């Protein structure tokens, strides 16, 4: 789907989209169109329940003599609540409403309420960003889909007083969307296509954007001593990989310590010997979502030439049961030298992250670390599918991440850490075990385990198990892989760590 910007000249045919504020308030261009159509917009709103609330829609067949096919009203809500999230939702709602309507083109009348302190370029660019995010579709393996089942919409033009400014503002947003799409692609792929070795190869594509990519194979991992990560992978025919991606966007920075992003990349998780139930196991192809988000974020940062120094590290493994798989009760030695009694082989993501977090600290001396993982089902019980769990050893870092999440519509909810939880993973025969004796506080137990591999570095852990995959469409996220975290991390780095 193509998105463009043009002067606010009403087209002579096709579909026109008109934004409406709360209480059915039309802007100047909307009022002009209402007059041209003999009051058709006002009559349609009065005859319906449409009031202009955020993400409301009302489709109107254009009256005779106008030339247009249809008019689509999109609610923006109250002008005082009109921020980038609301604008993106409006743009996404346009695509959601028209994608399969039969229309191939649509023109959006971009209007800025006088009381909103927003530029026409900003409004148009944010709406286009939302539309682009919603336009994603993973259809690589559909070979018999009928034409009328495919999206018809091909082009959306945003009509604005500052088309050149909107195009310029849209550039970096489009780069972020590219990173989001990269993540959605790799998360949506089946596990016979995306496995540790093939995903590591895909990471190499980032070199074209200027990212330095280094792939650590099994031989290197053994030499380093990543026993926790290797133990997870030993039941699979696919060897593990750790991929290190470096974006040096601010080489002249006085403080050259990078921001470190670390992702769990279990490309398929059967649970290992502690095998999962068969029902729903196909969803475990997206247990590499944390790694997917880190890779997509690195893509976004490089594509928009972010003036920041960032290192992304992903641990890629497949957790399979076999004659070579690790067993409950095995003891592994992590890169840190600490030993781990593996009580449950389905608590494998924390073993992968333990070695990657330690490697990030030792190798790059980062100013802070953020890890992302579909770590626990317990966080879904706690927070559902609206919020990701946030754990941190640093209040400022936690607050900054939460603020970034609110701005982009990827909310976080902070959960506690503490010695009482940490004591639950003490082992009788090793330095620690990978789960506690009971089921209580499962997501917290996973976080305190990870904290044992973090020294004095400011660190945050995002448990994205409930938000990495969606079973329904939202305004800017079609159902499937969400890429939750890419926009959040991009905004966090833009707001806090760019020159």
Précis, in short:
Helices cover 34% and strands 21% of the residues.
Task: Describe the fold and architecture.
Its EC number is 3.4.11.1, 3.4.11.10. One of its GO terms (molecular function) is aminopeptidase activity. Mn(2+) 2 binds at residues 264, 269, 287, 348. Mn(2+) 1 binds at residues 269, 346, 348. Its main location: cytoplasm. By secondary structure, this protein is of the alpha/beta class. The protein has 2 domains: 2-160, Leucine Aminopeptidase, subunit E, domain 1 (3-Layer(aba) Sandwich), CATH 3.40.220.10; 176-496, Aminopeptidase, CATH 3.40.630. 34% of the residues lie in helices and 21% in strands. It has 15 helices and 20 strands. It has helices spanning 28-36, 40-46, 84-98, 120-134, 163-188, 196-203, 218-224, 227-233, 289-303, 349-364, 378-383, 395-408, 419-422, 442-451, 486-496; strands at 2-6, 15-21, 25-26, 57-61, 70-77, 105-109, 155-159, 212-216, 241-248, 259-269, 309-319, 330-333, 339-342, 368-373, 388-392, 412-414, 432-433, 459-463, 469-470, 480-481. The strands form 4 sheets. It has an 8-stranded mixed sheet with strand order 8-9-11-10-14-18-15-16, with helices on both faces. Strands 1, 2, 3, 4, 5, 6 and 7 form a 7-stranded mixed sheet that branches. A hairpin with an 8-residue loop joins β4 and β5. α3 crosses α4 and α9 (289-303) packs across α15 (486-496). The chain is elongated. The model has no long low-confidence stretch (mean pLDDT 96).
